[in-house]
Amino acid sequence: MPRSRRTQISIEDTPYYHCCSRVVRRAFLCGDDKYTGKNYDHRRGWVETQILKLTEVFAIDVAAYAVMSNHLHVVLYIDIEKANNWTEREVAEQWHKCFKGSEITQRFIKGEVIEDYLVAQLKHLIATYRSRLSDISWFMRCLNEPIARQANYEDNCTGHFWEGRFKSQALLDDAAVLACMAYVELNPIRAKIADTPEHSDHTSLKLRVKAALKGEQPSSLLPFIGGESLNQVKGINFTIHDYLELVEQTGRVIRGDKRGVILENAENTLNRLNISVESWIKITSQFGKLFCGPVGTLQEITGYCEHLEKRRRHFSQSCQNFQSG
């Protein structure tokens, strides 16, 4: 039986979550449909554009994404501090970027005087919007619904485009975050629809490589803050150079038609994560099969289950993949 989303989110344990949505009815996001002869590559652009747009609306950052032929992946970072620090006016303005809101909130952001008897209602609406703007369920809703409407209009049909529920899983430490990001971003290479990171269209990896060539990081993605960027408040605790080097070498190993090894510099990154090279390759190749729930060590999964008042440590056996071998 599907579990309520709120029973899977524990900000106390981690702000990072991996989400995946799949299409139904033999639908396509991209590629050639052999049954109709149509090409749907342009739909991947729809999804990518919407993902990047939502980073400007929600108090949720995107660490990684990949848009594939019949599914999409995103690794999200919930920024509760950002949501809490927004003023009431900022909350309303952010919400109105996606929704019309109510007559009261429309008047509020225009600077009109709100009658005393409506103030309590306004504050309730603002509190609701603030909560939703840091909620991954609302993020995924705002991502998937517009795409479904566009696809149904293009296909001249009605009904579900996406499966009823998106998959989400907590990433409980740095090793889980980096492994999941690499798994997500290497999807096109693993599927052999791209040869190299810079040719992995509609992925965050391509954006990061393109920006790195200019000595920059994409403003639309959660940054890496290792090395010279340690003064930044939030981000991924590794250097962008180390991560791209690790992912590039991992991709070469994963591809069956290319020779590749994990070299010393990238292996040092794995040592920081306390993951052996063999475990890393296994995880980044089979992440979706190995982990059907929270990802981390046994201790972290135990704490996560306790905070969510779960009596059983579901999927605890998979934590052995994060033990250094």
Structure description:
- By secondary structure, this protein is of the alpha+beta class.
- The chain contains 13 helices and four strands.
- The protein has helices at residues 42-54, 80-85, 88-95, 103-109, 116-132, 136-155, 174-185, 187-190, 204-212, 240-254, 264-273, 277-290, 298-307; strands at residues 16-22, 60-67, 71-78, 167-170.
- The chain has a four-stranded antiparallel sheet with strand order 2-3-1-4, sandwiched between helices.
- Strand 2 (60-67) and strand 3 form a beta hairpin.
- Helix 3 crosses helix 5.
- The longest helix has 20 residues, at 136-155.
- It starts with 15 loop residues before the first strand and ends in an 18-residue tail after the last helix.
- The mean pLDDT is 86.
Give the key terms.
325 residues; alpha+beta; 8% strand; globular
Write a brief structural summary.
The chain is 45% helix and 8% strand. By secondary structure, the protein is an alpha+beta fold.
Beta strands, count:
4
How would a crystallographer describe the biggest sheet?
4 strands, antiparallel
Which structural class should the secondary elements be placed in?
Answer: alpha+beta
Low-confidence stretches: none
Strand percentage: 5-15%
Number of helices: 13
Widest sheet: strand ordering? 2-3-1-4
How do the helices and strands follow one another from N- to C-terminus?
EHEEHHHHHEHHHHHHH
Instruction: For the record, give the distance between the C-alpha atoms at the N and C termini, rounded to a whole number.
Output: 35 Å
What fraction, in percent, of the residue positions are helical?
40-55%
**Overall residue-averaged pLDDT value:** 86
**Dominant shape:** globular
Please compute the radius of gyration using only Cα atoms. 21 Å
